[in-house]
Design brief:
Blueprint: E1 7-10, H1 14-25, E2 30-33, H2 37-45, E3 54-56, H3 60-65, E4 72-75, H4 81-90, E5 99-102, H5 108-121, E6 124-131, H6 133-139, E7 142-147, H7 149-162, E8 165-166, E9 169-170, E10 172-176, H8 180-209, H9 214-224, H10 232-242, H11 265-275, H12 281-293, H13 296-306, H14 318-347, H15 353-359, H16 370-380, H17 390-412, H18 418-430, H19 437-448
Parallel strand pairs: 1-2, 1-4, 2-3, 4-5, 5-6, 7-10
Antiparallel strand pairs: 6-7, 8-9
Helix pairs in contact: 1-6, 8-11, 8-12, 8-14, 9-10, 11-12, 12-18, 14-17, 14-18, 15-16
The structure holds NADPH dihydro-nicotinamide-adenine-dinucleotide phosphate.
Length: 470
Amino acid sequence: MTQPAHIGLIGLGTMGAMLALNIAEKGFPIAVWNRTISVTHGFKAEAGSLAPMITPTETLADLVAAIKPPRAIILMVPAGQAVDDQIEALRPLMDRDDLIIDAGNALFHDTNRRAAEAAKLGPHFLGIGVSGGEEGARHGPAIMGGGERADWDRVAPVLNAIAAKYKGTPCADYMGPAGAGHFVKAVHNGIEYADMQMIAEVYGVMRDGLGMAADAVAQTLKSWNAGPLQSYLIEISGEVSAAIDTHSGKPMLDMILDRAGQKGTGRWTVIEAQHLAATIPAIESAVMARNLSSRLDERRAGEAVFGAAPTGKSGLTLAQLEQAMIAGKILCYAQGFALISAASKEFGWPMPLPEIARVWREGCIIRSSMLNDMATALTDDPTRNLMLAPFFADHLKGSQSALRAVVADAAMNGIAVPALSSGLAWFDSMRTARGTANMIQAQRDFFGAHGFERVDGLADKHGPWAGHGI
Ligand code: NDP
């Protein structure tokens, strides 16, 4: 006979099935339910030695009855209406003190709303961001939790057990109230977009600027993965560059259409940054580049009119490209953490920046050795922009000239590097004490009498052009 379940899970798709196996493997009996019943039985049948830990159920009432109270049920279904529908269906079946955990990629505003509804109607509600894809879900994802601290603490033993470990420390933590966990997950995905985009840009310079073949790109990325850029994304980029297409015998990369998809979490991050007036141009450029990549016909029309960029004309070295990538990566993370800081202030959620960096060190797609240094720098001073932390400031002092060289060389050779160039423009803006917004202020005062502050502190707020405006 199967044992009473410690926890339940709804949605045995790619992520849910792997999470359920992970939970069972860590010693927690689990009850599962899936909209399509055959999937539930197939899951149990294929669970091998973990099958005795799994209770398949055919109705939501059976699922709830199979779990030891106070119950906790994880939802791993598509974000949006499916989550609301499942909560509505579970509410009458569960006790007020039970807990529903949405582990999908919810928009954090939805999680805020669901948390508020849960506070009024029960059961309790947690929104957790889970990163690491299918492999991570099975063997250790990074987990970012949001909701009531006591609810997090209640399920933390399970979540810590299934999470990835960095030198023994679970990559799972409480990020703050309501939608904080899903907010941090969205920023994670925004950073992921930018990190991937910068790697793609550097690949573009190697392929088009330096005329390198895919296997040479693979060798370069593999060597970078042994240095400061060590990360999952550099590692897999090296692997995909080395792969050979079984149909054509050519490099796989050369056979893939340059049109990238997205599910929207990068876009959410950018929209939220605009609401918060946070500056994340590397992430914005990465989202823009994905949007633009899908406009293949327009790009072909552009090339027909303006001609293709010349190939093999770059004068860059691979060492410069590596240094530029290091600088770009630091700037992108500095922007992402600054966005979380801005949200912490605006929403009144003290989201813990050092803990976020620690959670991202393993399990998630953006895991990298640099995140450990970021965790240290943010522990020293979580209020300081990461680019000003001595460790990263030293890195930037050393690598900024390479970033300039790469952006300038790419511009001269017609190679688009939007994330690297916007990262550099942000860096230059952030290191310029006397910028150019005095011109903006003068223009605004001229046409709209908006007024300005003077450098000498005098009270006069208008220029001598009064009355010339429209
Ligand atoms: P899948 O499409 O693989 O699985 C979806 C699951 O949800 C299936 O079990 C499906 O059941 C069920 N489902 C779909 N619609 C409904 C509905 N209306 N009511 C009830 N159940 C429904 O999705 P994933 O596992 O990839 O993703 C699940 C969540 O995890 C999403 O929010 C996703 O964004 C997030 N996520 C995904 C990651 C990934 O790498 N795939 C990484 C991190 C988060 P049925 O068998 O009946 O179709």
